[in-house]
Structures are given as structure tokens and as C-alpha cells.
Amino acid sequence: MKPLLSDIEPLQHWLEDQSDFLRISGPCSAETPEQVMAVMEALAAQPGLHYVRFGVWKPRTRPNSFEGNGKPALGWLRASALKTGLKQMVEVADAQHVEAALEAGIEALWIGARTTVNPFSVQNISDALRGIDVPVFVKNPISPDLPLWLGALERVHAAGIRKLVAVHRGFTSYDAHPYRNAARWEIPLQLKGMVPDLPVICDPSHIAGRRDLVPEVAQRALDFGMQGLMVEAHPNPEEAWSDAAQQLPIHELGEFWGRLEYRSKMEISPEYNNRLWALRKLIDSLDEDLLNVLARRMEYTREIGRHKAEHNITLFQLERWNEILKTRTHRAGELGLDADFIRTLWMDMHQRGLVVQAEALASRL
Ligand code: PEP
Ligand code: MN
Question: What atom in ligand 1 is closest to the CA of residue 167?
């Protein structure tokens, strides 16, 4: 699979300050004219920001959530951009959004995670972008599917866009806890490996899902060599109309940026080019996934224990245990894992599971 991406413009060419670390911040949604102006004025007072983000059309997982103010909000954005001189970017999900946003003077666009999953939508957006020189940011699809993400980037690229940036915002997973979305760092790193010239930045807000976890995710993204961050911030996050739990208070943004350690390219190279270092980071993130899976597995074991206690069933069920051992070691063989190793691992897990179930039983006596 050879990526069809060439001649991508390096960030330094189009970021006017020559910085190689892209800083984007702003609220999840443009809520009211007053909120938009307050955001822009507060952000204008903080140096170093490249774009202010606003959700104008909000694709929501479920209906009856705030779906954005649409076109009228573009007028509020325009007025506040003229007043402050800051550049703005919005999410687009179809050709009409692209046209309306560009007509309103919006300086950059992003394609959201729920849109990237759909090649029809991405093509529709790309057709509207043909012949236009505007930076386009493509978030990863909500599913952990690298070819789908790459395909979306290729469609936008085929429309002639060369100011192209990939945004890593995590992936839907039932194992994401304590985060909202699973980071799966190996996926953006693989993308970077396939297309080294493509700037890849991170949206730690949608990965973390909780404002107290945003800084650690942001730092990890920079440690992995990502070239920028898109961070949700709101003048009064508790009152935000969408994603209230994850937005940083705007007045804390200065401190947030200040605490991040960013190694410039030169400094990064010994570490960043170090394969061992990158592999260790990947192992760290897989271990995190493993622990989350183990915790969930143990929770189900405990629930089974409670169920057995309620129905007076013996804790140890030989037939079930034999079946587990047989199927797991068989599958291990298919995956190229040593069967004895897997047997030992499962015996330890089973042993611990019985203890947990015995505790569940004892607590009912
Ligand atoms: C957003 O940026 O507010 C948003 C909806 O993000 P995502 O598409 O990553 O879910
Ligand atoms: Mn959001």
C-alpha cells in the first residue's frame, strides 16, 4: 500500500511565525455571539496561537444534543476575526459547509472523526475543495482503521490540497478507560512512518475526555514527535453546550502550554529517530490496553461470582475451565504464541478469578 501523497507543504512554509509546533485552541462549539467574541478576545491576549477552532456544525452521536448554530455562527466568527486578527478554523462535513465557511473568510477547515469514516462524505468535501488553496486537517476516523484515515487524506490531496495535516483524536473503544477514546498511538505513528512529510498533530481533548487528563495526553503526543496540538478551551467550561467535561478554562491555557516540554526537531532527533525508544513507547501503550482489558475481565469474573452465590452454584466448574484452556491455547497457536506460556498465564488469571469470586461469595454470607 503505497500512499498517494506527495508534495505536502511543510508546516514551516505556511505558519507565518516559522514555528514547527502548531498550536490550535478554542471551544468545542460556537455558542452565542457573546461567547465567540469573549473567546477571541481572550485568545488574542495570549501569544503563540496559530488558529482558533470553533464547531459550527456539530455531528453528534445522539440526537437532541446541541448540533451547532450553523451559518449564523459564521457571521459571529467573521466579526470577531476582523476585530482580533486571529485565524479561525471550523469543522466541515459536506460541500455546503465548505462553501459557506470559505465565503465567511474562515482560514482553515477540518474534517471530523465521524465524517472521515465515510468515503462518500470525504469525496463530496474534496470535490468542493478542488482548486482552492486552504489548509485542511483530517481527523482520524472513530474506528481504528489506518487505511480509512489514509484514504481520506488521499481524497483531499487528490483535490489539490497540499496544506494537509492529520489529526490524531483517538478511537472509539470500550477499553478506553480512564480516557474517552483509546489513543492507540501506534496508528498515528504508523501513518507518520508511511508518509514522513505529513504533519501529524494531536487532539488530546477528545482522547482524554476529562480536562485533568488533557495535559498528560498532550505531553505524550509531543514525546512521540507530533507537530502540534488542538486543544478545546472555553471561557466557562462547566457551562459549555458540548464536551463540557474536557474543555480547559481559557484562563488556564497559558499555563498549559507553558508546562509542555517540546523538543525542537534538532533536539528530538537522537530520541525520535531512535527505534528502540519508539518501540518502548508503543509497548507502554499496549500495556495500558492490556491492563484495561484485564480490569474489565476481572469485573465480569466478580459479577459471575455474585451470580453463582445467588444461585448456589459451585465456584469451580471443571467443564468450563477445560473449555477455556483448550480454546485459548488453540487460538494462541494460531497467533504464533507459545501454548505453554498462554496456559500458565490463564492458570494464574483463573486462580486469581476464583479468589475474587470467593470474596464475592463471602461478602454475601
Ligand atoms: C470536535 O472537534 O469538537 C469534534 C466533534 O471532534 P471529533 O470529530 O474528533 O469527535
Ligand atoms: Mn468537541
Answer: 9
Ligand 1 atom having least distance to the Cα of 115: 8
Measured by CA distance, the residue closest to atom 6 of ligand 1 is 112
Residue 194 lies in a domain: yes
Question: Does the pTM exceed 0.85?
Answer: no
Q: Are 165 and 188 in contact (CB under 8 A)?
A: no
Which structural domain range is residue 291 located in?
Answer: 270-364
End-of-domain residue from the set 267, 299, 321: 267
- Which residue, by CA, sits nearest to atom 2 of ligand 1? 28
Q: Based on the domain organization, do 136 and 225 belong to the same domain? A: yes
Which residue CA neighbors atom 10 of ligand 1 most closely?
A: 113
252/322 same-domain check: no
- Can you tell me the distance from the alpha carbon of 163 to that of 12, in angstroms, rounded to the nearest whole number? 11
Per-residue pLDDT of the chain (365 residues; tens, 9 = 90+): 688 899 999 998 888 777 778 999 999 999 999 999 999 999 999 989 999 999 999 988 888 889 999 999 999 999 999 999 999 999 999 999 999 999 999 999 999 999 999 999 999 999 999 999 999 999 999 999 999 999 999 999 999 999 999 999 999 998 788 899 999 988 998 898 889 899 999 999 999 999 999 999 999 999 888 999 999 999 999 999 999 999 999 999 999 999 998 876 544 444 555 667 667 877 888 888 899 899 999 999 999 988 888 888 887 788 999 999 999 999 999 999 999 999 999 999 999 999 988 888 888 76
Residue 30 DSSP label: -
- Ligand 1 first shell, C-beta below 6 A: 28, 55, 112-114, 139, 169, 203, 206
Residues in the chain: 365
Instruction: Report the nearest atom of ligand 1 relative to the CA of 28.
Output: 3
Q: How far is the CA of 179 from the centre of ligand 2 (A)?
A: 14
Specify whether the CB–CB gap between 20 and 264 falls below 8 A: yes
Q: How many domains does the chain have?
A: 2
Cell of 188: 498515528
158 strand-pairing partners: none
Indicate which CATH number applies to the domain containing 307.
1.20.59.10
| Residue 108, C-beta contacts closer than 8 angstroms, at least 6 positions apart | 51, 87, 88, 89, 134, 135, 136, 137, 163
